[in-house]
Design goal:
Strand 3 and strand 4 form a beta hairpin. By secondary structure, the chain is of the alpha/beta class. The chain has a six-stranded mixed β-sheet with strand order 11-10-14-15-16-17, sandwiched between helices. Strands 2-1-7-8-9 form a five-stranded mixed β-sheet. Strands 4-3-5-6 form a four-stranded mixed β-sheet, covered by helices on one side. Among the domains are: 203 residues, no CATH class; 368 residues, no CATH class. The protein has 29 helices and 17 strands.
Length: 822
């Protein structure tokens, strides 16, 4: 083998590595049917906000903080105090931060430079030609991708069996649009491209004279210019790797985008050569922090310090006294911030009610098939693989199942007939008048959808007693529910009942993979009601009284109505308790709606909320998780009676019951990570809506059954719609990175972080803030990075000098001094 050949192989390997790293810098995008919140900075969690800001500004022109006037308004109002500014200043790089408080405040009054991406060859070609090449690329690629990735929406789906790269080549070699627009020979250029995507990438890299130090940054930019299509390809890679496989679609899309660059370079290279050389050099420069980015990060940190100060004051207040008697009803809700409002309302109705917070999939990683459906719904966090399979219905419902399938097929065929190019106009003329009634009823929201009510789900295959007992023990211990069981225990999943909303699944349970949570709740109730399981739990130290009955429920977060699945396992002995629970739930729903109506535009009273979900013109049926800013894992006694305004994830956790801290590990590696994805999606959609948001709902069109585009084509848009973070006048979401508060020994928390590098990176690099609560539930210690802790204390900042370092003892139970602002 010759040395030149070895060098070529080494070069190809470097290109493959750079392409893979660029792909992993892109966040995944789940399809609309099961959309979940995704951290848009997922590929940058290994670096700080400042470094991520420098990188994303270069490749996408994306901001990572709010405009400075947003912080200045809060400084002037006193919301962000001098102490908050100082606490943030101490944590910033000394050589880049302002010299003093006055300099920092002065900087807040002037706008920082708007991030600007480096030009691509397409944008340079547009400058010299006057032709919108970036727009044309987005339109042509979007048209092809909508057919190639289609999930059942297209009437004529693109043929499969080829790689994405090969499938695009087959289409692009017959597409004359680029040539008509001014790029002659493009079809031939595509036909002569290498057969493999990686070979095409290598050829373009060589032709564009990209050095090794520039290619990863440039590849990252190429994928960012593809918007949600690159993110959907990243999702396919995510799903493949979750089951031990792989996927090359991201690499294929990179090759496609680079072939466009190559063709434009061949056409306009002589005119843009000087500017392109400058761009190449800029991509080769290592990412570095700038003074402006550091100032922006300090201001963001100060805003979060302000929120943490308020949170500390809230947690330091005495909690409402709890009833030590056996409760009549215990109700376990998802940790979702929307549940905080309902839990607080429900507990206020009667002292005989106790609520709990737990991840809404109830610890059951289920792949579920609904009644009359063959679709496998993964009702679990997207970080996990399903360990259980279930379906709705029994052998007794097979005939009904078959009938429902036939009806569903007829409905789909009728829908396709209505939309088909040949029949759509004739359909409207012939039958349009007959739809007047339905049109009016939909317009006025006269008919809403019923809550999900399939036949009771069952595990398939059926599990043995030992496995069911293990599930029961694991879940109950994770819920810190091992004693003092109420006669009636509600297991309440949650979902959102809305119409005409492509993003409806995003309002469902994130812990259930973008589906509602009733299936998991109903299966867990069945397991916990099994007498054999209860008997097997006794030797394990969990004694469930004979008069305790577990009942599944579904909390509709749009209407704050709760559906009870009492017919799953009829219990004559608990009818009185169930009637009382229904009355309490109805009263709590009224209180919760009244509170939420104060935040929603045009919601004059609590009665208006029930209509919003069935109003097909309503862009804000509810606020979802807008406003989320804290995650608290502690006994309910620490948070009971305190108003967190629907902005805190509340997870019940008693570390004294947690042997070997396995539950603590589970909380930090699953619910906290899911909550961080939610928090950072709202954050990214607010600070950089053009890059990480999906735009205006009023302009959305669903494409391929996957996602939305603005208008009639172009790039897929990912993230939250503008209406989800803004009420038309002001922001409904305050972009703050999540503050995580855990009542547990600091050494135990550090041990978990030391074994999970990716979770630790979230805290070490500031994407999340971490606090340890003391034995009184107060924020006593702040995680300082590198597995070290700093005690909360007063800071003398009169001379604006850095405080002396405090050694972080790793002992539980230390009492805090006054909370340091930050």
């Amino acid at each position: 083998m010759s040395y030149p050949h070895l060098a070529a192989l080494a070069g190809l390997k470097r290109i493959e590595t750079a392409a893979d790293r660029a792909a992993r810098a892109i966040p995944p995008l789940w399809p609309l049917a099961s959309s979940v919140a995704v951290n848009p900075f997922l590929g940058q969690t290994g670096e700080t906000l400042v470094m991520a800001g420098a990188r994303l500004a270069r490749v996408a022109g994306a901001a990572v903080t709010m405009p400075r006037r947003w912080y200045e308004e809060r400084i002037c109002a006193g919301t962000i105090s001098d102490e908050d500014l100082f606490a943030a200043w101490t944590r910033a790089p000394a050589h880049l931060r302002p010299a003093n408080l006055a300099a920092l405040k002065a900087a807040a009054t002037s706008d920082s430079p708007k991030p600007a991406a480096l030009p691509t060859i397409a944008s340079l070609a547009a400058e010299v030609s006057g032709i919108n090449w970036p727009g044309l690329i987005g339109e042509r690629l979007g048209t092809w991708a909508a057919g190639y990735f289609d999930k059942g929406q297209a009437l004529w789906a693109a043929p499969h069996g080829k790689s994405a790269y090969a499938a695009w080549q087959a289409v692009a070699t017959h597409d004359l649009t680029p040539e008509i627009a001014g790029l002659p020979g493009f079809a031939r250029h595509v036909s002569e491209a290498p057969d493999s995507a990686i070979a095409a990438i290598a050829r373009v890299t060589d032709r564009l004279n990209l050095g090794e130090s520039a290619i990863e940054s440039y590849f990252h930019q190429m994928l960012m210019t593809l918007g949600g299509w690159a993110q959907y390809a990243r999702y396919q890679l995510w799903q493949a790797e979750l089951t031990g496989g792989s996927d090359e679609v991201v690499t294929d899309l990179l090759a496609i985008r680079l072939i466009w660059e190559e063709a434009l370079f061949l056409r306009y290279g002589a005119q843009i050569s000087e500017k392109w050389a400058s761009v190449r050099a800029a991509h080769a420069v290592p990412i570095a922090a700038t003074t402006d980015l550091v100032i922006d990060a300090i201001l963001q940190d100060a805003a979060e310090s302000s929120a943490q100060r308020e949170l500390a004051e809230m947690l330091a207040k005495p909690s409402s006294t709890t009833n030590e008697d056996r409760p009549l009803v215990q109700a376990a809700f998802c940790i979702d911030v929307r549940s905080e409002v309902f839990r607080r309302a429900l507990e206020s109705v009667s002292p005989q009610i106790q609520t709990l917070g737990f991840a809404g999939f109830f610890g059951l990683g289920i792949s579920h098939r609904r009644f009359a459906s063959d679709v496998e719904e993964l009702r679990l966090p997207v970080l996990l693989n399903p360990g259980l399979r279930s379906c709705s219905g029994t052998l007794d419902t097979l005939a009904t199942d078959q009938s429902e399938r036939i009806t569903a097929r007829a409905r789909r065929a009728w829908g396709r007939f209505k939309l088909a190019a040949v029949s759509s106009f004739a359909f409207v003329e012939a039958t349009g008048p007959f739809y007047m009634g339905k049109l009016l009823s939909d317009a006025f929201g006269l008919h809403g959808r019923l809550a999900p009510n399939d036949p009771p789900p069952r595990l398939d295959p059926v599990l043995d007693l030992e496995t069911n007992t293990t599930i029961a023990e694991t879940v109950l211990r994770a819920m810190s529910l091992t004693k003092r069981f109420a006669p009636l225990v509600l297991l309440a999943g949650h979902g959102a009942n809305v119409v005409n909303n492509p993003h409806a699944s995003g309002l469902h349970c994130g812990a259930c993979g973008g589906y509602s949570g009733e299936v998991n709740a109903r299966i867990l109730a069945a397991i916990l009601n099994d007498p054999a399981v209860r008997t097997a739990l006794r030797p394990k130290g969990i004694e469930i009284p004979e008069d305790t009955f577990f009942l599944a429920a579904l909390h509709d977060t749009t209407t704050d109505q709760v559906t009870l699945y009492a017919q799953d396992y009829p219990a004559d002995t608990h009818q009185k308790d169930i009637r009382q629970a229904k009355a309490w739930l109805a009263a709590a729903g009224k209180l919760a709606r009244g509170e939420r109506a104060l935040r929603l535009p045009r919601a004059k009273n609590e009665g208006a909320l029930a209509r919003r979900g069935r109003d097909w013109a309503e862009t804000r049926p509810e606020w979802g998780l807008a406003g989320c800013k804290a995650f608290i894992a502690a006994p309910r006694t620490r948070t009971a009676g305190k108003n967190f305004e629907g902005r805190a994830f509340l997870h019940d956790y008693d570390w004294k019951q947690d042997e070997s801290f396995r539950v603590l590990e589970l909380i930090l590696t699953a619910p906290v990570v899911v909550a961080s994805w939610i928090s950072l999606q709202y954050y990214g959609s607010t600070v950089a809506p053009d890059v990480f948001g999906s735009g205006n709902k009023l302009l959305h069109n669903v494409t391929g059954g996957i996602g939305v585009v603005e208008g009639n084509g172009g790039l897929l848009r990912a993230g939250l719609p503008w209406q989800s973070v803004h009420d038309g006048k002001s922001y409904s979401h305050e972009p703050l990175r999540l503050s995580v508060c855990i009542e547990a020994p600091r050494q135990a928390i550090s041990d978990v972080l030391s074994h999970h590098a990716e979770v630790r990176a979230l805290f070490d690099n500031g994407w999340l803030s971490l606090f340890a609560l003391d034995d009184a539930g107060r924020m006593a210690w702040r995680y300082a990075g590198d597995l070290q802790w700093a005690q909360m204390s007063d800071v003398k900042f009169s001379q604006f000098s850095k405080p002396s370092e405090t050694s972080a003892e790793l002992q539980p139970g230390a009492s805090p001094s006054t909370f340091m602002k930050g």
